[in-house]
Amino acid sequence: MCYQFAVSDIASSLLDKDARIAELEAALAARDSLIAALRVQLANLRRMTFGQSSEKLSLQIEQLELALEELEGEAELADARKPCVDRGDQPIPIRSLPGHLPREERRLEPEAGTCTCPDCGGALRPLSEDSDEMLDVLPVQWRVMRTVRPKYSCRSCDRIVQAPVPPKAIARGKASFATLAHVVVNKFDHHLPLYRQAEMMAAQGIEIDRSTLAGWAGQAAALLDPIVSRIREEGLKADKIHADDTPVPMLDPGKGRTATARLWTYVVDDRASGVTCPALVWYRFTSDRSGIHPQGELKSFTGLLQADGYAGYDKLYASGRVREVACWAHFRRKIFENHLGHPTPLTTDLLDRIAQLYRHEADIRGQPPDVRCQHRQQHSKPLIEDLRTAIDDALRRLSPKSSMAKALAYGRKRWAALTIFLDDGKAEIDNNIAERAIRSIAIGRKNWLFAGSKVGGERAAAIYSVIETAKLNGIEPQAYIADVIEKIASDWPASRWDELMPWNWTLDIAPASMAA
To answer: I want to staple 470 with a disulfide (CB 3.0 to 4.6 A). Which of 271, 297, 453, 477 is the partner?
Structure first.
């Protein structure tokens, strides 16, 4: 009888174990499914060229990134704890590490040495070797560059000979050009405020006041001024500019709170139409959003201006020199907001029609303007004519006071500007190029607190212009800024400014000492 109970207990235990295993396997399958779903959702958000505002979209992406990091971390930890399983002849994929990284070899010899066999005492001979590479990291290494200039005297005439004083990033300062570049790129590209940088340096035994770091950033901006001016000059020569703006907080000591200033972006980027002219962007900081700011900035510009429906641009369009190109992403966004709150067959139909336009744009991305224009005339123009008819029919049925009617009226009011891209192959269907240039500002918005004047904002706009233009041209900003400000401080000749522009710059340009 006891034996029967024991068998029964064992069987029950096995059933419980099987049930627990099945439960764990189901949980793992659910986790893997959730990770896959989050990856797909994240990929879709990254591919989105329209929809919610870029700020809300960026926040949504950041939240998904954090959730995915946690789940993937748990998954990797669980997989690492699993016992190794012999895969037989199945090859194990090997991910190679970048070849440009420096290599440091650590050679592990047998404990018994390389001459004598530990089993029989026989002589060892080389057979082969196994190797494995791991990605390693060193903390930021601060060092002191000591410059020594020996003096020599002539025994015949007593003349003293000595090398000239090399240029310094800051007169009587202790920061190198590379240090200035490191500080500004960390602040404006990696979004590390100066007080955090000061804390990180202090942890390594380097006590630098935040005010000193601010002075270094200001000196870097001053040295970069010729580059910023040339970027703007080249940009205004283009025949198409993308423009946008975003609010930034600015300290207002008189009122004891922050005021809302603006940062404007102007982008020249025709790579989508196969044009090889340099891609560039420059920023302007203003204390308000008055229309006089873009009007003054673009007073010498002639060509296409792709922007939102801000009324401050209207005087530019009225001049006849500038043609308005409206943004389908803005128009679609207004329809989509109504669709989110109250989806209807009308909103679904209109969104599907606009999505067809974007699919045709994807087919011709990177093609020459004439090819793009021909394709749009053949495929997009009929879709847009049908879309206009559908919108007009809807406006006759909807109440003029409804939010959907207002969204559609917004588009119909700008219909001529929305359809210019059909006849001009260089024009884009939307203004996402400018919105991408603003996105980096939105990420670092918490850093935008200025000491009661426009100086800090103007300084930031200048540095952003250089960093973002460098990135548009595939250049690492810190290396670029460190090299260029040293050359500028070494009296680089004005006749050779173009060599220092991000679209021409290379590290093998003649050193600063040979610039004259």
So the answer is: 477
Q: Are 332 and 354 in contact (CB under 8 A)?
A: yes
CA distances from 322 to 148, 236, 392, 499 (A): 57, 12, 28, 31
Q: Which amino acid is at 471?
A: K
Is 53's pLDDT higher than 60? no
Residues 6+ apart with CB under 8 A from 454: 250, 261, 285, 286, 287
Tens of pLDDT, residue by residue over 60-80, are 565 555 555 555 555 555 554
Whether residue 390 has pLDDT greater than 90: yes
Beta-carbon count within 10 A of 313 CB: 19
DSSP 395-426: HHHS-TTSHHHHHHHHHHHTHHHHTGGGT-TT
Residue 204 burial by Cβ neighbours in a 10 Å radius (0-12, 13-18, 19+) = exposed
Q: How do beta strands 151-153 and 160-162 pair?
A: antiparallel
What gap in Å lies between CA 277 and CA 238, rounded to an integer?
A: 9
Count other Cβ atoms within 10 Å, centred on residue 466.
28
Cβ-contact 411, 390 below 8 angstroms: no
The one-letter amino acid at 432 = N
DSSP E strands, 236-279: 240-252, 257-268
357: which 2 tokens?
Answer: 């336009």
- Given pLDDT bands bounded at 50, 70 and 90, which one contains residue 168? confident
Q: Check whether 39 has a pLDDT greater than 80.
A: no
- Enter the pTM of the model: 0.78
pLDDT value at position 182?
94
- pLDDT class for 446, splitting at 50, 70, 90? low
Cβ pair 204, 210 in contact under 8 A: no
Q: Is the pLDDT of residue 204 over 70?
A: yes
Cα distance between residue 499 and residue 483, in whole Å: 12
Give DSSP secondary structure letters for 449-510.
--SSSSHHHHHHHHHHHHHHHHHHTT--HHHHHHHHHHHHHTT--GGGGGGGSTTT--TTSP
pLDDT tens-digit profile of 392-418? 999 999 999 899 999 999 999 999 999
- Which has more pLDDT, 59 or 496? 496
Nearest to 450 by CA among 260, 222, 216: 260
Higher pLDDT, 88 or 378: 378
153 Cβ partners below 8 Å, 6+ apart?
Answer: 159, 160, 161
DSSP 358-395: HHHHHHTTTS-HHHHHHHIIIIIHHHHHHHHHHHHHHH
**Whole-Å CA distances, 304 to 5, 26, 270, 308, 319:** 88, 57, 12, 13, 13
Which DSSP letter does residue 319 get? T
CA–CA dist 263, 457 (Å, integer)? 8
CB neighbours of 4 closer than 8 A, spacing ≥ 6? none
H/E stretch holding 17 reads helix 2-47
